[in-house]
Specification:
By secondary structure, this protein is α/β, with parallel strands linked by helices. It has 3 domains: 344 residues, 7-stranded beta/alpha barrel (Alpha-Beta Barrel); 28 residues, no CATH class; 88 residues. The protein starts with 10 loop residues before the first helix and ends with a helix.
Length: 495
Amino acid sequence: MTASPPICGREAELRALMQQQRSVWSGRSDRQLDRIRAGFACALHMHQPTVPAGINGALISHLQFMVEHPNDGDNHNAEPFAQCYRRMADLIPDLIAEGCSPRIMLDYSGNLLWGLEQMGRNDVVAALRHLACDAEMQRHVEWLGTFWSHAVAPSTPIPDLSLQISAWQHQFANQFGIEALQRVKGFSPPEMALPNHPDTLFAFISALRSHGYEWLLVQEHSIETLNGQPLSREQCLVPNRLTARNSCGEQISITALIKTQGSDTKLVGQMQPCYEALGCQRQPLGTRRVPALVSQIADGENGGVMMNEFPEAFRQAHRRIRDEGLETAAINGSEYLELLTEIGIESDQFPAVQAVHQQRLWNATGPTLTPAAVDNAMEKLKQSDPHFAMEGASWTNNLSWVEGYSNVLEPMKQLSSRFHAVFDQRVHEDPQLTQSGEYHEALMQLLLLETSCFRYWGQGSWTDYAKEIHRRGNAALTEPALQECDNNVAARTNR
């Protein structure tokens, strides 16, 4: 059992390693873009939160809670879920043995990766290690980064965006090694939640870039063209360049692949992206025409379709492509982007996009950008249009990650503020402080509090979990704990 998650202590090392530019797919991919009319990139998202529901309130994976309470709700699905977490380690090799060339992208939260080790599910962990580390699997499987505890980016305190990213990288490197981590180039934001507040989006993209990420997956309706229009279907089928401009006028950008078609898990569960790609034609990009790319992601375990229908649908799609010699291919996101680079198409040739509502905001702000001017423009737009919002967009516009959850969000903001007030200067003066137990405990509670689950599942036991974690986070920042922390710093300084 892993008593605590590996979420900190190697910040400088990992950041330096992730900043090293390296090709992952060059010389390894068997895809040739001039022979492909269209491709499909499917991703599976997996997550289980950590909850204070073990013996004496111990932190355990919610999957463990399901195992221990099989008669509650759909908790009887615990073992089917566990098999979903490991099954690609069987599906991929089986298809390779049949003469297919399958592809899949995998997005596992840090919570889940830690929880599987906590539970002693060595069968699942070994399967995931095979998918992450085996040389043959590297041609077929791409891992995507994400936030460690499945935080919702638009409503996560800005300083914590980097902490969430870093914690996941620590977790992944600890379980699968540095080389596996260096192959992770794409990012999957939990709930497909993209900030549209200019300062939050700027900070989010800045954090991704600083931690070595080259692209992210975004929901189609969470972005717009630079003139404020929805993306055309054709534009959704090529990479885009997502640009963020903050309230001081600074700009930063990152490549975006577009997730289309809303949130229905059946789209991946029944391999709809493959069949959509069969009807697609090559698309203009820069001065060339390139294969269209249909990108999609779905929860890999939730719902009967993912647990029951997906494996056979996945097999059938790849067998059809093998047998019919089609100009359609499964292809992973980084693989596609690297192959574009090989034929001379760089990211500056991708169409430019921005977060939704940006054009209205800039028009209302005027030519002089200042934080005050942007705030005033936002307030005026909110008063004149009840549909205007700066809370971000996600896979559904029918679910707010903010409204009605002040009892979670306010404690989260309070704990974040206190954490940074206590540690930021200390860490600046002594970076080794992130290796201390005091820092680790406080950081863990902060990250756990930021999970989307404490809002997604509604008021009641889930918000009670949040209340308890908030209490523990504050306890970790009490004077005795901080005094111990300072004593450790002093001891290192005096060596």
